[in-house]
Specification:
Low-confidence stretches: none
Pfam family, one: HTH_18
GO molecular function, one term: sequence-specific DNA binding
Protein name: AraC family transcriptional regulator
Shape: globular
Helix content: 40-55%
Number of domains: 2
Mean pLDDT: 86
CATH superfamily of the largest domain: Jelly Rolls
Keywords: DNA-binding, Transcription, Transcription regulation
Length: about 300
């Protein structure tokens, strides 16, 4: 984003061992009118809440547009491209797994595989002023807690974050036409599969291996995915592998051989054929097309 001023409010916790806990809210004032071709690759979970204005973006090459107020989410590794903006103000919430683990804590509210760790659908919500109000209130509460920490400081911040995520999920489900526990149960398998692919796509490429982890047959898995508008399991796995390859080809200087090995292909030639079948061009041809996109923050 083309930022003119930022106020940062960060949670602080003494580091003992391992990765430091990270939670931050940024209050962002943007240029009244600006256009930028800027790439940003997320290294933690991020939620963008735009209060007023408009913006055109790409999230992992999927077009996203906000007019007025809106919300979109990024998972670690996803690439956000700002194509144009005319936004007055917004917020950015950032956190890592050490603060709030989407894969475990998020499972309780089913945000894993829906808001996060689902590269097959960019989660975006367009909001009216009335719909934006609850999110503004929760962000104000987060900032107040970060400015004046009190008893159970971390627990309070986690509560506000969970409330924010639940509000987004409720609105997302309402617009998708999903209501009630039956639909929750029906969609959970699809969401769990998406999350598993996100976790294991570098090392597990066979549908049967994922089906085994989910205690269902490959046929049952395919049927459930189709019922919720997803592609087949094979296509879902393929798309995730190819997406990661595109990220690396477009935004890094890794060799094609390195990319192939990191994605679980022992034979770079087979990886080239796999990629070309899915993307209709070779890895090298794809890289050459976007050779000017290497700059990334």
């Amino acid at each position: 984003m083309s930022i003119s001023s930022v106020q940062k409010y960060r949670y602080q916790e003494p580091l003992t061992t391992g990765t430091p806990t990270f939670f931050e809210v940024q209050r962002i004032q943007l240029e009244t009118s600006c256009v930028a071709n800027h790439n940003h690759r997320a290294d933690h979970y991020q939620i963008y809440f735009l209060e007023e204005g408009m913006g055109k973006y790409q999230i992992d090459f999927q077009d996203v547009e906000i007019n007025g107020a809106g919300i979109f989410c990024l998972s670690p590794g996803q690439v956000l491209t700002v194509e144009s903006e005319a936004v007055k103000s917004g917020y950015q919430i950032g956190f890592n797994r050490e603060f709030y683990c989407v894969e475990t804590h998020g499972k309780e509210i089913a945000c894993n595989g829906v808001l996060f760790n689902n590269v097959h659908r960019a989660t975006t919500l367009q909001l009216s002023p009335a719909e934006a109000a609850p999110y503004q209130l929760l962000l104000s509460n987060m900032i107040r807690e970060l400015e004046k920490p009190g008893k159970a400081h971390r627990e309070m911040l986690e509560t506000y974050l969970r409330m924010f995520l639940i509000e987004v999920l409720r609105m997302y489900d309402e617009r998708a036409g999903w209501t009630g526990e039956a639909n929750d149960s029906e969609s959970r398998l699809a969401e769990d599969f998406i999350a598993l692919v996100e976790k294991h796509f570098r090392t597990i490429h066979a549908v049967s291996d994922y089906a085994e982890k989910l205690f269902v047959s490959p046929k049952s898995l395919a049927k459930r995915l189709k019922a919720h508008g997803y592609k087949t399991p094979t296509e879902t796995i393929r798309d995730r592998i190819v997406l990661e390859a595109k990220r690396d080809l477009r935004y890094t200087a890794k060799t094609i051989k390195e990319i192939a090995f990191e994605l679980g292909f022992e034979d770079p030639a087979y990886f080239t054929r796999y990629f070309k079948k899915a993307a209709s061009e070779s890895p090298q041809a794809y890289r050459d097309t976007y050779q000017n996109d290497r700059v990334i923050s």
